[in-house]
């Protein structure tokens, strides 16, 4: 997000990077609305957005599978690949978007001036309700506990986000996903998640009837994901408290 006055974008400055991707599965349209909510908030005049732009660099690839989307595919690319199973060794010919994004992430990871702190891949889920996350399992108990902080904070900000549905795993079937592959590649200060959101509805705490998702509700979840970064970095003392407590993003 270009902002000439931001210290983190000055030549030679160290950068803390948040990398977000979406729509690797073309049929998962809610992921695009969530991603749109994130982008709209980050480029807005909201005071939280300004603080985030001053302290962080956001890299966003909103559509990893444009040919699959164009063709109306549900899960695969033009050549019939599930791109979210090919992060380990993407082909520049068969999986060009994945290959390009992976090369960019590796270049940033190898740059001593860049700290790649978050990777979030946005999906939609066809059977579960609410928004929730998948994270990784690590042998280091402290790293595992630190990984749980962001979804816990998001649960406080987003009424439709469920921490109880959030899980941490290393299922062999998911080894080729962005979250699993990058979780094994990046160092222990990086956190990699899959953000899932229901195709159809969410249940509020203590409420029985399910609430149908709308485009606006998906975008609101995206806005709440964005503002949660401020809570996270305040907790970790990167951002001092320049703002009074603010209400949840509408």
TrEMBL record:
<feature type="active site" description="Proton donor/acceptor">
    <location>
        <position position="196"/>
    </location>
</feature>
<dbReference type="InterPro" id="IPR000834">
    <property type="entry name" value="Peptidase_M14"/>
</dbReference>
<dbReference type="InterPro" id="IPR050821">
    <property type="entry name" value="Cytosolic_carboxypeptidase"/>
</dbReference>
<feature type="domain" description="Peptidase M14">
    <location>
        <begin position="1"/>
        <end position="233"/>
    </location>
</feature>
<keyword id="KW-0378">Hydrolase</keyword>
<dbReference type="GO" id="GO:0008270">
    <property type="term" value="F:zinc ion binding"/>
</dbReference>
<keyword id="KW-0121">Carboxypeptidase</keyword>
<dbReference type="GO" id="GO:0004181">
    <property type="term" value="F:metallocarboxypeptidase activity"/>
</dbReference>
<keyword id="KW-0645">Protease</keyword>
<dbReference type="GO" id="GO:0006508">
    <property type="term" value="P:proteolysis"/>
</dbReference>
<dbReference type="Pfam" id="PF00246">
    <property type="entry name" value="Peptidase_M14"/>
</dbReference>
<comment type="similarity">
    <text>Belongs to the peptidase M14 family.</text>
</comment>
<protein>
    <submittedName>
        <fullName>CBPC6 carboxypeptidase</fullName>
    </submittedName>
</protein>
